[in-house]
Amino acid sequence: MLTGGCHCGAIRYEISGAPLNHALCHCVDCRRASGAPMVGWAMMTQEQLAVSGEPSTYASSEHARRHFCIQCGTGLFYTNDAMLPGLVDVQSATLDEPDELPAQAHIQTAERLGWMVQAHRLPEFELYPPQE
Question: In what order do the strands lie in the sheet with 105-107?
């Protein structure tokens, strides 16, 4: 069982069974909603997801709904009953143990930021870069 929640702890969730997939989305909508260059999504049936707390919902398009914590602003879930009936995406970075669910694919790469293609080649620092 996978568990997770928002930053402040007001919303918690449990995922039963294995998600259908786990993809890193590069679409403009995900980037703008999250403020990040891509978002990890674990997709599952709505029956696999049990939520405690009351997420707020934002209609990010005609059919898309983004669910988030009104207290701390953490994005949590995505639903789209027109394109993905009966399914829900969970933002995988909100898992308690995100390393337990490795990403399987990149999606919406037609909208990927150009510099993200080579992001794995950037210098790495365990904490922060040296202050010079």
Answer: 56-59, 64-68, 75-80, 87-91, 39-45, 21-25, 105-107
Q: How far apart are CA 52 and CA 54, in angstroms?
A: 7
C-alpha–C-alpha distance, residues 42 and 49, integer Å: 11
How far is Cα 120 from Cα 64, in angstroms, rounded to an integer? 31
Give every CB contact of residue 73 below 8 A, 6+ residues apart in sequence: 7
Over residues 90-118, the pLDDT tens digits come to 999 999 999 999 999 999 999 999 999 99
pTM: 0.92
Per-residue pLDDT tens digits for 20-32: 999 999 999 999 9
- Is the pLDDT assigned to residue 132 strictly greater than 90? no
Tell me the residue type at 51: V
Which among 101, 105, 102, 103 is positioned nearest to 1, based on CA atoms? 101
Cα dihedral 25, 85, 2, 51 in deg (nearest 10)? 110
Question: What gap in Å lies between CA 44 and CA 52, rounded to an integer?
Answer: 17
